[in-house]
Amino acid sequence: MHHRPRRPPPTRRRHPRRQRPLPQRPRRPPTGPGRPPLRNPRNPTPRSSLLTLYTDGLLETRDHDIDEGLDKMFHALARPAHNLDTVCDRILTTMLTHRPDDDIALLIARTRALNTNQIATFNLPSHPAIVAQARQHTTTQLTTWNLTDTTFTTELIVSELVTNAIRYGHPPIQLRLIHHNHTLTTEVSDTSNTTPHMRRARTYDEGGRGLLLIGQLAQRWGTRHTPTGKTVWTEQTLTPN
Question: What is the pLDDT of residues 47-92, one digit of tens each?
Fold first, then answer.
């Protein structure tokens, strides 16, 4: 398996009538040799752009080649839609007139920008005593956002993420809270490339339950690598008042 098999490039829609493929990047080495994470390319993208990633099975069919498929997909992307599910359904309906000859994957994302009052960032020293301070930062910020109903759960998540960063990561450590619509995102970053993995702790194990707890408290969680290390994130769905 390779990072970049023979696939058409992703596209970016900056305006309803302007779509174009993103710049081609050099081929990546095979996955699996145990190499450190590769540097991710960056492409500045305006707010509300649509990023579309897809496999060639969506475009190349017995009825038309890839170029014709791209034109059809761009036409489907140009039509307005209220949500991304509608965009995906429209593309699949437009492109698939019969059972596909190849496997198909389609992923669409919309870029967004947040106001400064929706983000709170705290730099933390790498010391066990700082976990209590991280919880206090969290409580204060959630009160500012009028999200006190989520305080208990979010404090538990912050405690686990910060503790893991102190034990298994490398300083500096940063806590970031993001409030957007009905989602609360908690991020803890450090400069280690080690990716955390969930495991089942045995009855008498003193540790190993942190990520299992996070998986139960948050709707989603994961890890993303950054140029300086990694970020472990969680998402909680907020109940409208």
Answer: 878 888 888 778 776 666 777 778 888 888 888 777 888 889 998 8
Instruction: Provide the token pair at 143.
Output: 């009160």
50-54/11-15 β-pairing? antiparallel
81: its two tokens:
């839609």
Q: How far does Cα 200 stand from its chain's mean position?
A: 25
Identify the band that residue 29 occupies on the pLDDT scale cut at 50, 70 and 90.
Answer: low
State how far the Cα of 217 lies from the Cα of 209, in Å rounded to an integer: 12
Contacts of 190 (CB under 8 A, 6+ apart): 165, 169, 170, 171, 172, 173, 174, 229, 230
Sequence-separated (6 or more) residues with CB below 8 Å from residue 235: 183, 184, 185, 218, 219, 220, 221
pLDDT level of residue 103 (50, 70, 90 thresholds) = confident
For residue 65 the two structure tokens come to 């080649």
Q: Could you write out the DSSP letters of every residue in 15-63? A: ETTEEEEPPP-PPPPBS-S-PPPPPPP-----TTPEEEEE-HHHH--SS
- pTM, entire model: 0.70
Degrees to nearest 5, angle at CA 202 with 200 and 203: 130
Residue among 71, 169, 178 nearest 126 (CA): 169
